[in-house]
C-alpha cells in the first residue's frame, strides 16, 4: 500500500508558498527587533588627561588598570580608547585614554561606582592622571 500521497505541481507550489510566507512573517518580529536599539541604556564615557602625557609606560599602566574593571558584572559593554589620528576643529585630542562603558540603567552604573574593584582602581592608578572628564548620558 502506498502511503505517499501524490501531489500535483499546483498543490505543491501552493503549499510551498504558504509555508514560505508563514516562515517570513514568523521572522518579521525578529527582523524588526534587529533595527531597534535597546531602551534605557546608560552610557558612561571617561576621558583621562595624563600627568606625563609623553610617557608610554604611564599610558600602558592606566590601560592595564582599566582592563581590571572589565570584570565588574554591572558593565554591559566596555571599550578602552586613545585619540584617533583625526584633525578637525571640533575634535578634542588632548586626553590620553578614554573609557567607554554601557550599563543597563543608572542603578547598574551606581553599582559599578561603588564596586570594590573600581574603588581599588582609583586608589592604585589616580596618580597617573591630572584631569578626568566624565560624560554620562542615557540612550533615547
Automatic annotation (TrEMBL):
<dbReference type="InterPro" id="IPR013097">
    <property type="entry name" value="Dabb"/>
</dbReference>
<keyword id="KW-0732">Signal</keyword>
<feature type="domain" description="Stress-response A/B barrel">
    <location>
        <begin position="42"/>
        <end position="137"/>
    </location>
</feature>
<feature type="transmembrane region" description="Helical">
    <location>
        <begin position="12"/>
        <end position="31"/>
    </location>
</feature>
<dbReference type="InterPro" id="IPR011008">
    <property type="entry name" value="Dimeric_a/b-barrel"/>
</dbReference>
<feature type="signal peptide">
    <location>
        <begin position="1"/>
        <end position="22"/>
    </location>
</feature>
<keyword id="KW-1133">Transmembrane helix</keyword>
<protein>
    <submittedName>
        <fullName>Dabb family protein</fullName>
    </submittedName>
</protein>
<dbReference type="Pfam" id="PF07876">
    <property type="entry name" value="Dabb"/>
</dbReference>
<keyword id="KW-0472">Membrane</keyword>
<dbReference type="InterPro" id="IPR006311">
    <property type="entry name" value="TAT_signal"/>
</dbReference>
<keyword id="KW-0812">Transmembrane</keyword>
